[in-house]
Amino acid sequence: MDFEALKKYSALHPKPARLTLQYGTAGFRSKAEQLDHVMFRMGLLAALRSRATGSTIGVMVTASHNPEEDNGVKLVDPLGEMLHPSWEEYATQLANAEEQDLQKTLTEICQKAAVNQQKDASVFIGRDTRPSSKKLSQAVIDGVSVLGGQYHDYGLVTTPQLHYVVCCQNTRGQYGKPTLEGYYQKLSKAFMELIKKSPGSGEGQRHLKIDCANGIGALKLSEMQPYLPKEVLVHIYNDGTKEKLNHLCGADFVKVHQKPPKGLDMKPNERCCSFDGDADRIVYYYTDTAGHFHLIDGDKIATLISIFLKELLAKVGQTLKMAVIQTAYANGSSTRYLEETLQVPVHCVKTGVKHLHHKAQEFDIGVYFEANGHGTVLFSKAAENTIRQLAKDEKDDAKREAAKVLENLIDLINQTVGDAISDMLVIEAILSLKGLTVHQWDAFYTDFPNRLLKVQVADRQVIDTTDAERRAVTPPGLQEKIDALVKKYKFSRAFVRPSGTEDVVRIYAEADTQENADALAHEVSLAVYHLAGGRGAPPQPL
Ligand SMILES: CC(=O)N[C@H]1[C@@H](OP(=O)(O)O)O[C@H](CO)[C@@H](O)[C@@H]1O
Ligand SMILES: [Mg+2]
């Protein structure tokens, strides 16, 4: 390590005194002006991680659905997964080291993680469309360079595209070509193969309106359009030319407010969807003829995909082990439908994509989605090989054809991470093959009325949870109080947990009616306020 150069460059990216940030569920996120030193240091860390793994590491500059003024950064591990938890810790230490301790902290990390400093380092960098992203990604490049690492700057990409190219690079092209063109070609080819066999629905069914949150999704989807068959009539809204990123639009806005985004005119029964700011989440929705808004969230997306996969597995006659992975935020009605009607095993894990991804790897086919629309499907290597073999050699025509559909699905799905573009194409292909309207899809089951609230407390870490975050262990008395409140309502459930991305405690409640779900959520939020050190005025009823 050239400590003189490090000192010199670090001085160009100084850390504001006393500022501490944490590498959380979604990496670092903060106001953009606080992040220059974090970016430089994540460039350093990516170079070390690359040396430690002997692989290319990704760095994505984005704050996803946060306001345009924010920014953030996430590291991508060799196969396109989220950064390993032990390194999240190093990331936090490095970001918070005072200037004079930087060298010491780096040396310590190298020792703890057994980094061979002689090895080559290679880092792929991408960024979203925020005004601050260009400059911040330059700080990442400075960090990589000062440690003698090589970098490839992909410029403007969606988060899942960066995960994809990292995986392609480290699998030596097995997963695909590590270029955007390679991504467009692989996905569009698989998509075209899939919809070839669709029964040819009417023109009206082919339209899809997409709210791109005024973000990167609009740019990349337009870039992909020439690769898609002309039967797909995709209409891009909120493309970022007029309005602010994520402002009153995007997947998070639609999910949280349960209403349509600004800037997209919806006619009754038209199929619409929203991406988030870095295009790794997607939710669908429509309004019915009575003008009611219907949200089709990640749970219903997981259900649609599971139904389709289950049918195909039955056709190919393979007993591959399939499971759906959810978090506690999954609507209880979706869990019940999956377990009881579809007879698919469901597992509940802690909030955060890495937990879902990890669990999904235990199965031949693991379908995972957060209710907010982040998700994908993982196929084990063995399952993938079986399917590809059957698609090639199976003598029985029906079985072989079903295996081919599965094979194309494997190629269409971005298995590295949830991907709005890829998920959208998967959903569109399934709806088209099954001849389903958005209304029919929505009717698989009816969501239980629910409410998500947040409460400010002095220190949200006083709440500790267990059982995939569904029960609070501390502070004393809180869980007993929640249990007593839940008993007052029919078909009810409630839980609380400290957010990993915001300084709040989240409260979730379900009950038989919307009024009851609202009332239960409110009463639980009061319990949190009183027992967990509420800050400011007590929560008011809705
Ligand atoms: C209830 C909810 O939607 N929580 C989100 C949110 O996490 P919190 O830890 O709840 O702040 O942001 C995460 C990162 O985007 C996402 O994985 C998660 O699902
Ligand atoms: Mg996102």
UniProtKB/TrEMBL annotation:
Catalytic activity, reaction form: N-acetyl-alpha-D-glucosamine 1-phosphate = N-acetyl-D-glucosamine 6-phosphate
Residues where Mg(2+) binds: 64, 276, 278, 280
Pathway assigned to this chain's UniProt record: Nucleotide-sugar biosynthesis; UDP-N-acetyl-alpha-D-glucosamine biosynthesis; N-acetyl-alpha-D-glucosamine 1-phosphate from alpha-D-glucosamine 6-phosphate (route I): step 2/2
Limits of the Alpha-D-phosphohexomutase C-terminal domain: 452-525
Comment on bound cofactor: Binds 1 Mg(2+) ion per subunit.
Domain Phosphoacetylglucosamine mutase AMG1: 206-283, 297-435
Domain of life: Eukaryota
Classification via InterPro entries: A-D-PHexomutase_a/b/a-I, A-D-PHexomutase_a/b/a-I/II/III, A-D-PHexomutase_C, A-D-PHexomutase_C_sf, A-D-PHexomutase_CS, AMG1_II, AMG1_III, PAGM
Repeat keyword on record: no
Ranges for domain Alpha-D-phosphohexomutase alpha/beta/alpha: 51-99, 113-166
Active-site residues, Swiss-Prot/TrEMBL: 64
Protein name: Phosphoacetylglucosamine mutase
